[in-house]
Amino acid sequence: MNPYNLDTLNKRFGLAGILVFKIGPGGLPVVEVLNEQASAMIALQGAHLLQWSPIGEDPVIWLSPEAKFAEGKSVRGGVPVCWPWFGPHEQESGFPAHGFARTVPWEVFETNANQDGSTSIGLRLLQNEATRTQWPHASDVELYIRVGTALELDLVTRNNGSTPVSIGEALHTYFQISDIRQASVLGLNDLDYIDKVDGGERKRQEGVIAFTGETDRIYLDHGADCLIHDPGLGRRIRIHKRGSHSTVVWNPWIEKAEKMGDLGPDGYLHMLCVECANAADDVVKITPGGEHHLWMRYSVEAL
User: Fold this and answer.
1) What secondary structure letter does DSSP report for 290?
2) Does residue 172 lie within any of the structural domains?
3) pTM greater than 0.90
4) Which of 172, 222, 245, 292 is catalytic?
5) Is the residue at 1 inside a domain?
6) Number of domains in the chain
7) Under a CB-based contact definition with an 8 Å cutoff, are residues 169 and 188 in contact?
8) Which of 20, 112, 172, 235 suits a disulfide with 120, CB 3.0-4.6 Å?
9) Is 293 a catalytic residue?
10) Out of 98, 142, 229, 275, which one is annotated catalytic?
11) What pLDDT tens digit does each residue of the chain (303 aa) get?
12) Residue 39, domain member (yes or no)
């Protein structure tokens, strides 16, 4: 089945009044979800969640107003899937940063209208000659997304080969905030982190994370909840995870944002990435026949 045949997708997986497949921004096929709890949009390219808004809430996921939508290109904002490595490839400088999963087609294999009012969709990465050149291992990769008052994502990697494989990964979530200068992140106090802005120096977090300039950090040995505190929107975003012991916190600030070209005017003020990851010291080894789940749930709490 062609995963981008919208008529076939709607007949097999559409849910009347709740979930529909359609052409989205830039001509890319998307899944649009609207149930009694929330709305969401997911691009089939990259299994890339572009939007999620609980009913009555401001959008929780940030998408750049100047995001570029094109076949084979990553999208600025939403929840890009970084897999099977995080950051640059260790040996091959020509391979794409953060892997190839976010720019290749994924196929839908299930959808469900759940009894609690939420909606679920399962997607599987489609492998081809190019992906096998970069990742010559027998493996399956699936992403399960549950859209409701909370948003759940479960990235599953299965090792179908006869030797262990090691992966780095992240769900590179861009959260929408009122103003980065007023926002803060709680739950990472007293942890070591790698400061990528300061040449990879290892440092210790003291207190909450506040933002006064470019921030790019990998927090180590972290598996507990963390929260984005946003007084401008009167809310906290709670990030709960399993299968991850590293957390990435990133905002490009003014100068880097201007060079990137797709964040939009003052876009850096309204976005903050807090990423559940397996990065740096936290790469995952999967034994033959084994699997790894990178799972997280995002929810909104009033201040």
Assistant:
1) -
2) yes
3) yes
4) 172
5) no
6) 1
7) no
8) 112
9) no
10) 275
11) 456 899 999 999 999 999 999 999 999 999 999 999 999 999 999 999 999 999 999 999 999 999 999 999 999 999 999 999 999 898 888 899 999 999 999 999 999 999 999 999 999 999 999 899 999 999 999 999 999 999 999 999 999 999 999 999 999 999 999 999 999 999 999 999 999 999 999 999 999 999 999 999 999 999 999 999 999 999 999 999 999 999 999 999 999 999 998 998 899 999 999 999 999 999 999 999 999 999 999 999 999
12) yes
The CA distance from 61 to 52, in Å, is 6
What's the angle, vertex CA 257, arms to CA 253 and CA 259, rounded to 5? 135
Query: Within a 13 Å sphere around the CA of 45, how many CA atoms are in the beta-carbon half?
Result: 17
Q: Can you list the alpha helix ranges (DSSP code H) found in the chain? A: 6-13, 129-134, 253-260
Kindly state the tokens that stand for 151: 């948003």
**Cβ distance 44 to 29 under 8 Å?**
yes
Please report, as a single letter, which amino acid is at residue 276: C
DSSP conformation letters of 250-287? EE-HHHHHHHHS-S-TTGGGGEEEEEEEE-GGG-EEE-
In DSSP notation, 212-231 reads SS-EEEEEES--S-EEEEET
Token pair, residue 207, equals: 């207190």
Amino acid at 139: S
Structure tokens at 20: 């529909």
> Has 275 been annotated as catalytic?
yes
